[in-house]
């Protein structure tokens, strides 16, 4: 198992770092890259009040991935997993698994009971859907043509029980 | 049909007006009232960049209801209906129907093709679910115990075709 260190504090430099990381992953449109970046900026500006929490995973002091999550307003114990991204050069090493496990443990410590993740039905996201499936998420809902014609929104749920 | 005038401009005084209106409806928790209010504040501070659009309905110069909606980032033509509220003293007059029709027309003018609304499965929201059903929405998804044990999230979709 790759040796990782985790950091929850968000630095201003993370804004550019996340933009570069998400860009490099090649998965996301420029709009999506800006959304990912804006959540970091929200946290830098407003702290925990932003509702966006982060875990950065570093290997040999280099950030190789991060997750962004937060409690869902109006629910008593639901959390959203907004993003989980691993640098493409560091994939296949189980870093996503370690990062998700660490994130789930933190959410559980914060009182979270259910974790929600959304993704697309298109082929490019097959690895993402497979990742969620292997990690104990189940497909609880599907909204047809949500993102675009033929591109459905897939709603995954995981029950946390640490 | 009740004679209504509609306004899209958001004034700073709408922050307090919406808080009072949503409070008076008796439907929403204090957390939810604050969420509704914060969306108005976001618009006052950031304008259309906030992503939150409003339509206020007035009868004899008194605001009797409003809707809050916006384009869904990452989708090509999806819109969320965040809130639609009618003053309890003005209910049963078809104001919600007029307000929704006007909102759907505006969304359609903005290129929206599908409108999404979420509500709860609990008894208190039976009129809300019935309203969406009568207005051409269908239940496309349901997330069990989303808000709380026994309180599911109901995902409604309407295809707009003006």
Describe, in plain words, how this protein is organized in 3D:
- The structure is a homodimer of 162-residue chains.
- Helix content of chain A is 33%, strand content 35%.
- In chain A, strands 1-2-3-4-5-7-6 form a seven-stranded mixed β-sheet, sandwiched between helices.
- The first copy, chain A, is built from four helices and seven strands.
- In chain A, helix 3 links the parallel strand 4 and strand 5.
- The longest helix of chain A has 17 residues.
- Chain A is of the alpha+beta class.
- In chain A, helix 1 runs antiparallel to helix 2.
- At the A-B interface, helix 2 and strand 6 of A face helix 2 and strand 6 of B.
Please write out the topology:
The structure is a homodimer of 162-residue chains.
Chain A: E1 5-7, H1 13-25, H2 30-46, E2 53-59, E3 62-71, E4 78-86, H3 95-109, E5 114-120, H4 126-134, E6 138-148, E7 151-159
Parallel strand pairs in A: 4-5
Antiparallel strand pairs in A: 1-2, 2-3, 3-4, 5-7, 6-7
Helix pairs in contact in A: 1-2
Summarize the structure.
The structure is a homodimer of 162-residue chains. Chain A is built from 4 helices and 7 strands, in the order βααβββαβαββ. Chain A is an alpha+beta fold and 162 residues long.
Shape of chain A: globular
Low-confidence stretches of chain A: none
Strand order of the largest sheet of chain A: 1-2-3-4-5-7-6
Give me the oligomer status. homodimer
Largest sheet of chain A: 7 strands, mixed
**Helix-strand pattern of chain A, N to C?**
EHHEEEHEHEE
């Amino acid at each position: 198992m790759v040796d990782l260190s985790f950091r929850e504090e968000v630095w201003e430099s993370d804004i550019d770092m996340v933009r570069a990381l998400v860009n490099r992953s090649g998965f996301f449109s420029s709009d999506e890259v800006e959304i990912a970046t804006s959540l970091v900026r929200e946290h830098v500006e407003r702290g925990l009040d932003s509702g966006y929490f982060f875990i950065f995973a570093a290997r040999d002091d280099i950030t190789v991935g991060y997750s962004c999550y937060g409690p869902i307003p109006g629910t008593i114990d639901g959390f959203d997993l907004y993003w989980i991204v691993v640098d493409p050069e560091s994939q296949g090493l189980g870093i996503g698994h370690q990062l998700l496990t660490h994130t789930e443990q933190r959410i559980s410590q914060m009182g979270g009971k259910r974790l929600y993740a959304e993704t697309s039905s298109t082929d490019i996201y097959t690895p993402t859907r497979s990742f969620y499936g292997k990690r104990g998420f189940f497909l609880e809902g599907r909204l047809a043509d949500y993102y675009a014609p033929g591109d459905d929104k897939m709603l995954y749920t995981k029950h946390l029980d640490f």
